[in-house]
Specification:
- The chain is of the alpha/beta class.
- It has 2 domains: 177 residues, Rossmann fold (3-Layer(aba) Sandwich); 52 residues, no CATH class.
- 33% of the residues lie in helices and 26% in strands.
- The protein is built from 7 helices and 12 strands.
- The strands form 2 sheets. Strands 3-2-1-4-7-8-9 form a 7-stranded mixed sheet, with helices on both faces.
- α4 links the parallel β7 and β8.
- The protein is globular and about 50 Å long.
Length: 272
């Protein structure tokens, strides 16, 4: 059994503000500890279900240097740093059987959702694949499915839990906070959140969803940017079309290529 644990930060218990998730801010250091603790809880849960499992933890927030390496469960291996292929679930190409998403958040535009965004809050307004809007959870779950890995667990606020359950019937979800808005929530104590994540990870591995979530290719990708100039830059990529002042599109072979293309759009937009 090979399990990948992808760990973001916006969905961590106790995290509600941009200051909490911004590298260099004092509150970020506190949040790093909370997030590492939640990653460890997921690792413990996985190994309680499958003691001989190989567990790979993918640091998936900001510049992918958020988790505290010497505080991570020593039984897990850590994917850290950027840029890297497959970004938030780097390592998925190594024969992964199951993926756990820890500390994830709602997609861009989700009402009353803590720190909701998709890939880059300052760049992307929405992403649609074959007409269906997807956030970071959906895009990465689909990429996991591309490699025949089963998405089994999602943790974060209540809006993320609903989003995950809608996309992956039978998935185990753990709500560590109830969203009151984009920057407010009623949250569990971090210790209680970790206890529930550990139990959730165990349950998820013992009772995984029956179906693997996939998006079959080809994929009609549409990305809405926040500003027209960002869309214009994206159109410098061959075969990318301007569909509206802020929307670009291209038909790509599969979800793997779609995510690579989104990363290119974000890099170009950030160059402004």
């Amino acid at each position: 059994m090979h399990v990948l644990v992808s760990v973001d930060m916006e969905g961590t218990a106790g995290v509600v503000s941009p200051d909490d998730i911004r590298p260099g801010h004092p509150e970020f250091e506190r949040s790093r500890g909370y997030t590492t603790d939640e990653a460890n809880a997921a690792v413990r849960g996985v190994l309680s279900a499958h003691p001989d499992a190989t567990v790979l933890v993918a640091d998936a927030h900001a510049d992918f240097r958020t988790l505290i390496p010497d505080r991570l469960d020593r039984r897990a291996m850590l994917v850290r740093g950027a840029p890297r292929r497959h970004a938030m679930i780097s390592g998925i190409q190594s024969g992964t059987d199951a993926v756990c998403f820890v500390g994830y958040h709602g997609r861009a535009g989700t009402a009353t959702s803590v720190l909701a965004h998709t890939i880059s809050g300052g760049v992307i307004a929405s992403v649609r694949c074959n007409g269906r809007e997807l956030g970071e959870f959906g895009l990465n779950a689909a990429l996991a499915g591309r490699f025949r890995a089963r998405t089994v667990l999602a943790t974060g606020d209540d809006t993320l839990a609903r989003e995950a359950a809608d996309l992956v019937p039978g998935i185990t979800t753990v709500e560590v906070k109830l969203a009151l808005g984009n920057r407010a929530a009623i949250g569990l104590h971090p210790t209680e959140a970790c206890a529930r994540i550990e139990q959730g990870a165990r349950d998820a591995l013992l009772h995984p969803p029956e179906q693997i979530f996939t998006i079959d290719g080809p994929v009609d990708l549409e990305v809405e940017m926040h500003r027209p100039v960002m869309a214009e830059l994206a159109c410098l990529v061959p075969e990318v079309r301007l569909l509206a002042p802020t929307i670009v599109g291209r038909c790509v072979p599969d979800i793997d290529v779609a995510l690579d293309l989104i990363e290119v759009f974000v890099a170009l937009a950030r160059s402004i």
